[in-house]
Amino acid sequence: MHWNTKCNHDIEVHRRKLCENESRCFFQQLIDAVDYCHSKGVYHRDLKPENLLLDYQGNLKVSDFGLSALPQKGVGLLHTTCGTPNYVAPEVLNQQGYDGSAADVWSCGVILYVLMAGYLPFNEINLQTLFEKINAAEFTCPAWFSSGAKSLIYRILDPNPQTRTLRVYKEADLLRMDMQGCCTAYTELAKSVTDDIRAG
């Protein structure tokens, strides 16, 4: 994972495999932020690690709302196909209108996978092959994922947008566990990043 200083001492969260506790802390903050945006009727549509910032206190921030949108009046669906291909939900690719909330949730699931695995669940050079795998949710979790992590990720990366909601995932066992150890690991991670930047 590369850590680049940003304005206001923010740090870009890029790819490096994190332990489950660290990943849980990132993900919990991510879905809380996304849930807040959705409560205001804002859908990001380009969620990915490169658009997540971590400050020196370990606070996660969502950035780059350049592709964000509000639902169209009287319809409630979005129609513009946009986002980063590896993180885009199946229904976005089908170009028949999609729910912005469910699409963002899919992207959050891909992010959780990347944080824990260090690589993408859907990653093909050929875009057609990539889209076919996304549409079929064709991926596997690494052996080192816990059963709770696997269960959560498989539930989020569900091709059916109607059953893909933040409310369900916020109640997942992985996120209901005691967060004390998680937060300790997260604080240590933020401190180590800060030390690396100062040393560099």
From TrEMBL:
<comment type="function">
    <text>CIPK serine-threonine protein kinases interact with CBL proteins. Binding of a CBL protein to the regulatory NAF domain of CIPK protein lead to the activation of the kinase in a calcium-dependent manner.</text>
</comment>
<protein>
    <recommendedName>
        <fullName>non-specific serine/threonine protein kinase</fullName>
        <ecNumber>2.7.11.1</ecNumber>
    </recommendedName>
</protein>
<feature type="domain" description="Protein kinase">
    <location>
        <begin position="1"/>
        <end position="175"/>
    </location>
</feature>
<dbReference type="InterPro" id="IPR008271">
    <property type="entry name" value="Ser/Thr_kinase_AS"/>
</dbReference>
<dbReference type="InterPro" id="IPR000719">
    <property type="entry name" value="Prot_kinase_dom"/>
</dbReference>
<dbReference type="InterPro" id="IPR011009">
    <property type="entry name" value="Kinase-like_dom_sf"/>
</dbReference>
<keyword id="KW-0723">Serine/threonine-protein kinase</keyword>
<comment type="similarity">
    <text>Belongs to the protein kinase superfamily. CAMK Ser/Thr protein kinase family. SNF1 subfamily.</text>
</comment>
<keyword id="KW-0418">Kinase</keyword>
<keyword id="KW-0067">ATP-binding</keyword>
<keyword id="KW-0547">Nucleotide-binding</keyword>
<keyword id="KW-0808">Transferase</keyword>
<dbReference type="GO" id="GO:0005524">
    <property type="term" value="F:ATP binding"/>
</dbReference>
<dbReference type="GO" id="GO:0007165">
    <property type="term" value="P:signal transduction"/>
</dbReference>
<dbReference type="Pfam" id="PF00069">
    <property type="entry name" value="Pkinase"/>
</dbReference>
<dbReference type="GO" id="GO:0004674">
    <property type="term" value="F:protein serine/threonine kinase activity"/>
</dbReference>
